[in-house]
Amino acid sequence: MQKSLLFPIAFLSGLVMCLLAATGFAGETGAHVKGRADTPTMESSASACAQNADNTFCWMSPDIGQAWASGYTGSGVSITIVDDFRSSDMVDGDLGRGPQRQRHGEWVFEEAGMVAPGANMFRNAYIQEAPIALHDGLNVINLSYSYPEPVSRSPLEQSIVDAARAGNAVVAKSAGNDGIRMGTVNSKGDADYLAVSLFGTPSTIFVGALDHNGTPENKASLASYSNYAGSNPQVQNQFLTVGVEGDKTGLFGTSHGVPVISGYSAILGNKFPSATPTQIANQLLDTARTDTLVNYNAATYGRGEASLSRALAPDWIR
């Protein structure tokens, strides 16, 4: 059983660090095989990521600081990161707290916790095949990896899909890093069955990566590696994009867009504590911006670029 991290590549001071995902078999043997991460070629000089006056960091949208200033930090919401927390594969990066070398899951965990510092954070190593555990209150499940086998073979992935179908958790899922339409087979002959199984589920958001946080004055494009929504209206309706500023952090990939959306979901759940996971997901999708994107079209960008400020604007959501 093979799981693949959706983490294309990280650079620090021009040094290329390719991350290959470790993935485990169910059972007690501890055996594992290597998954394959997508690794497009790109140049970067991950410079020091300065902290801003509002305590946000260089890779964050200004909307995050505005949310914190209004008292919304994700309090009362649980974010579970399902990822690699056990392999020996490490990558260098800097989210603004100084250069570090961490596992893929540790980076994703840190990013989500930085966006929503008030959230209750949980780790779930995907080598463990037990069903996902949900917690009291709003649950957000962060999936920054692919699964190239039918989900019915895994109690963990099947339980996540079941939770998404029932609308029991906001499920934020990486779109993938092959530069192809979601749901199609990549150049290695792999398809992401986890993504396909989540098509049409009411509380799932697929996350594509932009080359930076867009503004009307400085529009963003879909990152060259990012998968796109394609012509399926169902997928377009669930697809959001977010800036992944790897030139500042050394961390590229749709993997690193997902924890931003997970954090946004927690912040919304903080403001709207009675909202359901489906309402939270729909609020982010329905308030996405298109005026910050180069040549916006739904087949590329889905609903558009996530806008936390627009999602938080109303007094209530439905």
Automatic annotation (TrEMBL):
<dbReference type="InterPro" id="IPR036852">
    <property type="entry name" value="Peptidase_S8/S53_dom_sf"/>
</dbReference>
<protein>
    <submittedName>
        <fullName>S8/S53 family peptidase</fullName>
        <ecNumber>3.4.-.-</ecNumber>
    </submittedName>
</protein>
<keyword id="KW-0645">Protease</keyword>
<feature type="active site" description="Charge relay system">
    <location>
        <position position="104"/>
    </location>
</feature>
<comment type="similarity">
    <text>Belongs to the peptidase S8 family.</text>
</comment>
<feature type="active site" description="Charge relay system">
    <location>
        <position position="83"/>
    </location>
</feature>
<feature type="domain" description="Peptidase S8/S53">
    <location>
        <begin position="131"/>
        <end position="297"/>
    </location>
</feature>
<keyword id="KW-0732">Signal</keyword>
<dbReference type="InterPro" id="IPR000209">
    <property type="entry name" value="Peptidase_S8/S53_dom"/>
</dbReference>
<feature type="signal peptide">
    <location>
        <begin position="1"/>
        <end position="26"/>
    </location>
</feature>
<keyword id="KW-0378">Hydrolase</keyword>
<dbReference type="Pfam" id="PF00082">
    <property type="entry name" value="Peptidase_S8"/>
</dbReference>
<feature type="active site" description="Charge relay system">
    <location>
        <position position="255"/>
    </location>
</feature>
<dbReference type="GO" id="GO:0016787">
    <property type="term" value="F:hydrolase activity"/>
</dbReference>
<keyword id="KW-0720">Serine protease</keyword>
